[in-house]
Amino acid sequence: MGRLSLVLLVLVLGVVVVTHLPYRESLQSFANYLPVHTVLELLAIGIALLVFAVGFNTFRRGLPANILLMSCGFLGVGILDTSHMLSYHGMPDFVTPNGVEKAINFWLAARTLAALVLFVVASTAWRPATAHAYRYVALVPVLLLMAGLHWLLLFHDQWLPRTFIDGHGLTPFKVYYEYGLVALNLATALVLLARMRGVLNFNAPMLFGAVCSMALSEFLFTLYSDVGDIYNFLGHIYKSISYLFLYRAIFVETIEYPFSLLQGAERQLQFITDHAPVHIAQCDKEYRYRFVNQSYAGLFGLQPEDLVGKTAAQIMDRDSCAQARPDMAAALAGSAVSSDMILRSKTGPRVYLAHYVPERSATGEVVGFISAISDITARKEAEARIESLAHFDQLTGLPNRSLLKDRFDYVLGMAHRNGEPLAVMFLDLDHFKKINDTLGHGAGDEVLIEVARRLKARLREADIVSRLGGDEFIVVLPDTDEEGAIHVALSLIEAFSPSCNIDDQELLVTPSIGIALYPHDGEDFDTLSRNADAAMYRVKQSGRNGYSFYAPEMQAQSVRYLQLAGALRQALQRDELQLHYQPQLSIRDGRVVGAEALLRWRHPEWGMVSPAEFIPIAEESGLITPIGEWVIRTAVRQMKAWRARGLPEMPVAVNLSAVQFRQENITELITRILDEEGLPYHLLELELTEAVAMDDAQRAVRIMDSLHEQGIRMSIDDFGTGYSSLSYLKKFKVSKLKIDQSFVRDLDEDPEDKTIVGTIIHMAASLGMKTIAEGVETASQLAFLRLHGCDEVQGFYFSKPLPAGQFEAFARSNGSDTTPRLSEETVQ
Ligand SMILES: Nc1nc2c(ncn2[C@@H]2O[C@H](COP(=O)(O)O[C@H]3[C@@H](O)[C@H](n4cnc5c(=O)[nH]c(N)nc54)O[C@@H]3COP(=O)(O)O)[C@@H](O)[C@H]2O)c(=O)[nH]1
C-alpha cells in the first residue's frame, strides 16, 4: 500500500499543481492535438485490450467471476475508446461524419462503462467461478452492448442530450455528467476502502488506485475548455494510468499470484519430499525423470538436477533397472504396483520396497508414473533374524525343534503316502558336561559347532539334522530301514573318531545314538523321538559310544527314570534318605575296624529304591552334589555320636561320586564339614572308584595330595575294574585298595579271579597299601583272602549294610573278639 499511496499522492499533487498554476492560461492548446490524442488513446486502448486479453485468456475455473466481468467490461471500454478516437475531430469519418459531440458521446459511454464495471466489481463478492464456459456468457452481452451503443451513438445521437454546442463549448449536461462519473468512481473507491479493512481475496489496493486515478481523470475532463489544453492532455494520461492499475490488478490476480502460488507449492513440495523418509521420483512415459527428491538423487550420489531429463536406465545399474522395469511398465499401463527390489545404491546393494503409481493428466490419460521407494533392508534383516531365531539353532545353524517338526511332518507325509520306512535317531554326546565343566562353555560351544559340521557332512541332502539344545541332536533319515539306519549310525560314530582340536587340546568326543523306526516304533514325531531317546539312554547305560534300536521295554525304563528323577528332587527335603553302615573287619583278629556308609532311599510309595538305580540318576541330574554333602555330614555326625557313646574309634568310609570329585572345592567342603561337626579328620575315609581316579589321574593326584595333607584317608573302590597305570597308582596317596566284588564273587570257581585277587593283594603290599575285599559271601572266599594276606573284609558273610543302631550293636558284640566266622576253624 505504501507505493500505491505515493503514486496516488503524486497524481493528486499533479491535479492540484495543474489547477493552481499561475500560468495555466498560457499552457493553452497543443498546436496540433490530434496526433497526441491518437497516441494517448491508442495507449489507453492497448492497455484496456491487455486487461481483456489477460483476464479472459487466463480465466479458469476457481478464479473469481469478477475478473471475467472486469476483463470483458474493459473490452467494451477499449472498443468505445477506439470509436471515440476514430470519431475525433480531424480523423477521417468513422461510419458517420465525425464531430466533437460524436467523440464526446463515445467518450462518455466508455467512461460510464468503466465506472460501472469497477463499481460492480468492487462491491460484489469475489467468489470462485464454477465453470469455464462463463467466459463466453460474459463476453456475448458485452459485444451486444457494444453493437447497441454504436447503433445509438452513430445513427441516433439526436435521442441523447447535447454535450457540446459549436461556438459555445461543453454543455452543462456534459460537465455534470462528468461530475457524476467522478462521484461514482469516488463511491467505488469508498467501497474498496471499506473492503480493504477486512480479509481480502482480491487485489483491492490496485482497484482502489484505478478508481482514484479514474476519478482524477474525470475531474480533469470537467475542467478543459479546449480539447487540446493541459487538462484534457493530463486527463488522458490519468486515464491510461488508471488502466495500468487495472492491468496490474488483473495481471497479479490471474498470472503473478497464481504463479507465485505455484512456485510456493513447488517449493513446499520440494521441501516436503526432501524431508520425507522415502525416495520419490516422477517419470514420464519414456522413463525420463521429471522430478526427484533430494534423497532419491542421493541414492546414486547425485543431485536432483543431475537426474532430471535422464532416463532410469541411464541412472540405475543394469540389474536394478531390470528389476524395476516390469513395475514401471505396469504403472504406465495404469496399475498401481508395489514390490520388493534390490537396488544397487551408492552404499551398495540394499533392499527397497518400491511403489509405482500411474500419473494421469486432467483427461485421465497416463502421462507417467510416480515411484516412492523406501529402504527396508533393516526390516528385512530383522525379519530374517526373527526367522532364524524362530527356526534355527543360533550356535550351530542347524534347524531347531520347531523347524524340525515342520520338516518331519513333511517327510512323514511322504513316507506315509509312498509306504516307505523312516528312521529317527536321538544322538547325545558322551560326557559333554565334563567338557563344559572343565574347559568352559566356550570350548563346549566349539565342540557342538564341530559336531554339527561333522554330522551334516555324513548325511544326505534329504536327511534332517537338528539340535534340540544342550548336546542333544535329532537326525531324521527318510526312506531308511533298519539296515540303512545301522549304516548311518556307524558312519556317524566314525565321524567322531578324529579328535576335535579345541583351544589347542585334542578332545575325543563320542556319541550315544538311539534309533526308532517308522512305522514300527511309532507313527508320529513325539512317539518316535521319545522312543529314540529311550534307546539312546540304553546306550548310555551300556557303556556309551554306540547305537541301539528301540525296544518296547525301554519305554517303561525311561518312564521309571523320569519318575525317579522327579521324586529324587524331593527326597532330601522329605527326609526319605538314610544311611546304612556295612561293617569292615580285620582278617587278622576279626575286629570291626571300619564301616562303609551306604545310601538308602525309602520312597513312601515304591519302598526301598536301590542306590545302584538312583545314584546314576542323581549324578546325571546334578542332585548328587547336595545328596553327597548330606551323606558326608550324616556319616560324620553318626561317627561322632558313636564316639560319644564309647564305641571304639574306627573310620567310616563314604563313597565319592565322579561329579563330587570334580567339584573344585571338594577338599574345603570336606574339611569344613569335619570342622563344623568336630570330628578328627582321620576318622573319615573317602572311597573313590578306580575309574574316576584314572579318568583324570593328574587331578586325582592333586586332590588326593591335598586330602592326605589334611589327614583325610582315601581308598580306591572297585579296584581291578579300571585300567590303573602303575605309575599313577604309585602317586595316589591312598591307604587302601578295595578289591572289586566281581573278582571275589567267583574266587571259588574262577582261577583267573584267584590270580587277579592274589596279584592285587601283593601289589598293594608292595606299594605300602592295605587291601580290603568286598562282597565276601563264603568261608572259602574268606580263606583264600586270608591265605593271600588280604587285610580286611566286607560282605554279607559277616553282615549286610545295617541301620546305625544295629551297626552299633554289631560292632559292640564283635568289636573286641574275633568273630566265629573269622575263627581259624573256618579257614580251609
Ligand atoms: N556315590 C555314592 N555311591 C553310593 C552311596 N551309597 C551307595 N553307593 C553306591 O551304590 C552302589 C550300590 O550300593 P549298594 O546297593 O548299597 O550295594 C553295596 C553293598 O550293599 C553291596 N555289598 C556289600 N557286600 C556284599 C556282598 O557280600 N554281596 C553282594 N552281592 N553285595 C554286597 O556292595 C555295594 C557296595 O559297593 P562299594 O561301594 O563298591 O563298596 C554301589 O556302587 C555303591 O558304591 C553313596 O552314598 N554315594
In the CATH classification, which architecture of the largest domain applies? Alpha-Beta Barrel
Named CATH topology of the largest domain = TIM Barrel
**Got a strand count?**
24
Q: Fraction of residues in helices?
A: 55-70%
Shape, principal axes of CA atoms:
rod-shaped
Quote the distance from N terminus to C terminus.
Answer: 142 Å
Low-confidence stretches: 824-828
Domain EAL: 561-815
InterPro entries: Biofilm_reg_signaling, EAL_dom, EAL_sf, GGDEF_dom, MASE3, Nucleotide_cyclase, PAS, PAS-assoc_C
Domain PAC: 337-388
Domain GGDEF: 420-552
What key phrases describe this protein's structure?
Rhopdopsin 7-helix transmembrane proteins, 24 strands, 8-stranded mixed barrel, Rev_trsase/Diguanyl_cyclase, 5-stranded antiparallel sheet, alpha/beta, 828 residues, transmembrane helix
Give a summary of the structure in a few sentences.
This is EAL domain-containing protein. With 828 residues, the protein is of the alpha/beta class. Helix content is 55%, strand content 17%.
Structure description:
- The chain crosses the membrane at residues 34-55, 67-86, 106-126, 133-155, 175-194, 206-224.
- This is EAL domain-containing protein.
- Residues 420-552 form the GGDEF domain.
- Keywords: Membrane, Transmembrane, Transmembrane helix.
- By secondary structure, this protein is an alpha/beta fold.
- The protein folds into four domains: 32-259, Up-down Bundle (Rhopdopsin 7-helix transmembrane proteins), CATH 1.20.1070; 276-382, PAS domain (Beta-Lactamase, 2-Layer Sandwich); 392-550, Reverse transcriptase/Diguanylate cyclase domain (Alpha-Beta Plaits), CATH 3.30.70; 565-826, TIM Barrel, CATH 3.20.20.450.
- The strands form five sheets. The chain has an eight-stranded mixed β-barrel, surrounded by four helices. The chain has a five-stranded antiparallel β-sheet with strand order 4-3-7-6-5, with helices on both faces. Strands 9-10-8-13-14 form a five-stranded mixed β-sheet, with helices on both faces.
- Strand 6 and strand 7 form a beta hairpin.
- Helix 1 packs antiparallel against helix 8 (230-275).
- The protein is rod-shaped and about 180 Å long.
- Bound molecules: ligand LFPHGCPZ.
- Ligand LFPHGCPZ is lined by residues 582, 596, 598-599, 610-612, 615, 631, 655, 657, 717-718, 741, 774-777, 794-796, 801.
